[in-house]
Structure prediction request, 500 residues.
Amino acid sequence: MIVVTKVNIDDGSTIWAQGGIAAVLDPADTTQAHLADTLVAGVGLCDEAAVEVLVTEGPGRLHELIALGAQFDRNPDGSLALTREGGHHADRIVHAGGDATGVEVQRALHAAVRRDPGLQVVEHALVLDLLPGADGRAAGITLHVLGEGTPDGVGAVLARAVVLATGGMGQVYAATTNPSVSTGDGVALGLRAGAVVTDVEFVQFHPTVLFLGADAGKGQQPLVSEALRGEGAILVDAAGTPFMRDVHELADLAPRDVVAKAITRVLLEQDVEHVYLDARHLGAGVLAHRFPTITARCRQAGIDPVHEPIPVTPAAHYASGGLRTDLDGRTSVPGLYACGEVSCTGVHGANRLASNSLLEGLVFAGRIGADLARDLPSQAEPRDLDTPTGLLDPGVRPAVTEAMTQGAGVLRSAVSLADTLGQLDRLGEKTSTDPGPSAWEATNLHTVATALAAAAERRTETRGCHWRTDHAGADERWRGHLLASIDADGELREQYEPAR
Ligand SMILES: Cc1cc2nc3c(=O)[nH]c(=O)nc-3n(C[C@H](O)[C@H](O)[C@H](O)COP(=O)(O)OP(=O)(O)OC[C@H]3O[C@@H](n4cnc5c(N)ncnc54)[C@H](O)[C@@H]3O)c2cc1C
Prediction:
């Protein structure tokens, strides 16, 4: 098996995860309660069968990760330490290193990959497109090897099955918690290959990233995990007034979309750039022990959370939608699988419940592995590849991210989305003569931005993390999914499908 990754194997969102992994491990908790919390967050659009798989298989997969070597924080009696996050009605978040869960998960998985002689890892190789098979099945991938210790150049890898695990698309916005590799490549590649993409309008904006100043707020921003609110930190405005108690019964631990919207409302009403997260009452001991990463990052920015409130603002965080899969991770293209944030298995619906995404990766990766072990297809005969045309000038990237932030961010309306789509249309004319990796990434960002903004424009309601200022509240006629695909003429097509 070959694992191809565009920078180093550690460069993805996983290593940045802070809060943890949700799983029912406390005897007082139940899978039904986890299911119920997930369905509430998803506001009518979760696929209940997929959520059932997630919550029932999750604990077993977590124990497999522990057996692989992952070390999670434990109580003095040796049991796993569990905390609570937004939208959960029980303590079910497993964490590591206080607030460095992703570092430990990535370390354990990386070590397991290194130990496995059956795995070949190719780093610094950008996957470009699916290599189509003559019979419509996936036959492999094309890639651009970036010349770190190997000759720079374009090539292909034949494969009996292709599993996309390319992560999210946060870089489509000007400010995001996602690393630079999260450019939506898998979704764009899938669309070009004829796969169905769904729910892309549901982008979760994390309510609290560290506000570093208006000029510093571009690209990847430092996250201030909601686990901090789980331990008692409170959101306040510039006057020190808490504002979440009047908004939701769970106050500061309301689902993320509710908190992001409440903060955005304060920003607009008070014409300010950030609110504050007050964690002073947790004390120096809790901050140092449970939140060493956040405390250190704040101090690096000149803010001491022991003595002053932390300035925070929302930023793009998580793509709830992606390549549509069945319960075994299969996309609509035979032989092409999707796993993790690039996929849309149906577990998140209109909004992801905190710490369900690492869990989704664990559970559905296991199911993909089992499916391939059962039924690995034969090698498809590759079709001749067309020379790529229409790749975009890498210089369009800042304009794409700005258009998305202005018109398709936390707040959207028919006017703002039409403006964004108009800008994207014009930017789509600026093609590149150099088909290098930067042109591919710019093209991918533009493709997913267009699909996202088009779906957001079409969905004339407010649901989950999709907030239309011109259509307040959820509309029963929209309790369904927008499916997007690219037709034979290269046009983006959308189709509505009522929720099951
Ligand atoms: C700051 C932050 C905190 C988070 N905290 C939590 C949390 O506490 N709990 C939780 O459940 N979730 C959390 N999430 C979300 C979660 O971390 C991600 O959804 C998850 O890690 C995604 O895993 P993945 O394997 O799908 O993608 P990633 O971990 O992003 O990996 C994708 C890989 O694909 C590679 N790649 C991408 N495109 C290409 C290409 N064209 N060619 C070759 N390689 C490519 C990338 O380089 C990368 O190695 C957090 C996310 C962020 C950003």
Remarks:
- Residues 175 and 217 are 6 Å apart (CA to CA).
- The longest strand covers residues 310-319.
- Residues 2-167+318-374 form a domain with the FAD/NAD(P)-binding domain fold (CATH 3.50.50.60).
